[in-house]
């Protein structure tokens, strides 16, 4: 497991991290985005989707819970998932996310709502807000990601 951190001074820096992830993303991958409201989780997801070819801004999936993106809209099918409104991890199977991993990647905000054992091979990103308003990104890259994870 590789760990690291990076300071993100602007929203554009967060979007650039998403673009870096997109360059290594493949079907079956899961990217977990953790952090408080307003920390930049959706900015990273938007940068990832834009780098995959999405024209326009991706909406936050807060109310839809799962926002799918498919070819030709993006070069790789992605489900952008926001679990904030999930009441219990037992509701997770109803979303069909594991089935989607056969041909899609998942980008999951609020992964703590899925329980501690969900997606053990995921790239885990955590964001916090610094006193000056910048963001602190920390990550854990499991073996499945170590050779692909951009050195940021």
Automatic annotation (TrEMBL):
Keywords from the named record: ATP-binding, Cytoplasm, Magnesium, Metal-binding, Nucleotide-binding, tRNA processing
InterPro entries reported in the protein's UniProt record: P-loop_NTPase (IPR027417), T6A_TsaE (IPR003442)
UniProt keyword Membrane present: no
Cellular compartments annotated: Cytoplasm
Keyword Metal-binding (UniProt): yes
Domain of life: Bacteria
Family indicated by similarity: Belongs to the TsaE family.
Protein name: tRNA threonylcarbamoyladenosine biosynthesis protein TsaE
The organism's taxonomic lineage, starting at the top: Bacteria, Pseudomonadati, Pseudomonadota, Alphaproteobacteria, Sphingomonadales
